[in-house]
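Lab notebook, bench 4. The sequencing result for the construct came back, and we need a structural model before the next group meeting so we can plan mutations. Quick request posted to the team channel:

Model the 3D structure of this chain.
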Amino acid sequence: MKVYSKLIQWIRHHKILAVLSATLLVVGAGKAAELLTPAKEIALIIGEPWKDMQARSSAKIADNIPNEIWYRVPEELAYLRFADPKFGFTTPPAKFFTVSFDDDASIRSVRMSPQVEPLPLQEALDIVLDLQNQWGKSGWEVMYPDENPPYENSASLIEKMTRCAPDSTYWEVKGKYQIMLIMSCYKDERYPDEQRFLISLSMGKPWH
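Done. Here's the predicted structure in token form:
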């Protein structure tokens, strides 16, 4: 009973800490870490040496191992800063984030979903529109404007996406980089009554 009384007294005198502790227990250790720890940065340029990326980034990412593992994953929640001085851009933090390398230890490509979890349509679209805005301002060009135009905040696109008809768009810096961006429906069991969307971004050297 003494221990119980002391616990009650502690809670009364530390209400804020008690509420925070209860919240952390509810959301779980992993989610709490995301809420309390700011995302770190992976800063890279396609084609540069792997060690240059490691030195520039605040997020830890392991060494490349040629002929054994062709990609690595940041060791903590991270966002991408594409560090090209002319064509750079920044993404939101990403739960899914891989960086691959060639046998010569140079960076080959990035595959990521620039979000922490699947999002409602408008929130996912806002991320896509912001990325497209950054690309347009820094000199990237749309590759197939007629067949695969950029995403837009229009009634026709929103209607198409709510039917789970995925759309894609392709961007390039001619002779240097290409990006493929797709937004599609994602069934999230945590939100059975909500429609959620996943953004997929792939970037690398020209493949077309």
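The mean pLDDT is 85.
Will bring this to the meeting.
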